[in-house]
Amino acid sequence: MRLTSNKIKKTTSNMLKVLLIAVLALGGVNPAHAADKKPKMTKQERVCLRNGNKLYEKKRYAEAEVEYRKALQANPASEKAQFNLATALMRQGNATAQQDDEKNPMNQAEGILTNLAKGAQDKQLRGKACYDLGNISYSRQDYGKAIEFYKHALRCDPNDEQARHNLRLAQLKKQQQDQNKDKNQDKNQDNKDKNQDQNKDQNKDQNKDQNQDKQDQDKDKQKQDQQNQDNQDQQKQDQQKQQQQQGGMSQQNAEQVLKAMQDRERATQQRINAQQAQQQRHERQRTNKKW
Question: What residues have CB less than 8 Å from 135, skipping those under 6 apart?
Answer without folding.
Answer: 146, 166
